[in-house]
Amino acid sequence: FCVCDIDAYVSRPDDKVPSMKTAKETAVRNVADIIALGVKPEDIYVQSQKDKEYFQFCFEVSKKITKNAFEAIYGHIDLGKMAAVFLQIGDILHIQLPYMFGKNPSITGIGLEQDPHARITRDVAARIEYDFEKPSFFYFQHQSGLKQGKKMSKSEPDTAIFLNDTEEEVKRKMNNAFTGGKISLKEQREKGGNPDICKIYELLRFHYPDDDLLEETYQQCKKGKILCGECKQKCINFLITFLKEHKEKYEKALPIANKLVYGTNKL
Question: What domains can be seen in the chain, in order of their start residue?
Fold first, then answer.
């Protein structure tokens, strides 16, 4: 699991990531969250802490992409973005270097919008002076925002549940989330709700661990046997419990995260 602190700094505008110091502070929080979610520290690396062979390889990658190819894929030339792309390709391919694991199949999870990046990575793998297997990719589905027609966004906090949200924030966001309920309770009891467009059900579908109970909730909603208020409360209870446990794990993971990001217990 790669934590891209250099990538975050060079590819984001200054109003979002003004310095490498900011990127590293964010990386510490991200690493602590990742560990709290169950990823083992030994399976995490931070770009800025990688060895010289990794960065040498990223420079080798940079010679395999022309200006025209870059513009065709990414639409514009930005030196920071270009540097980030070389690092991202390096992240995917460097594990096949002789000093790592050598030639091996690999698979990387990406969003569908990153498909062009996956294709250029496979192209570089075929042309660079190493005996690499072309990497494979799988596409994951993004959970949509809590508001109708909205993506999750930091600039619109009510579209998402964040790992550091308070109980009050969770309750407010869930109670104001878009649902598949009918106009009146009477109509919903008679005709049922529509869980397929409900943001509450979508959140549970992505995160609730009990598939049988999830299917039961789906069917009860369709039949009008469960109302939106009950489903919201179920989701609130689940999230509050999850976030409380996550916060405890996060605090315990912070010293490890600091060591991974800085190489020392700096903070």
Answer: 2-142 (3.40.50.620), 157-247 (1.10.240.10)
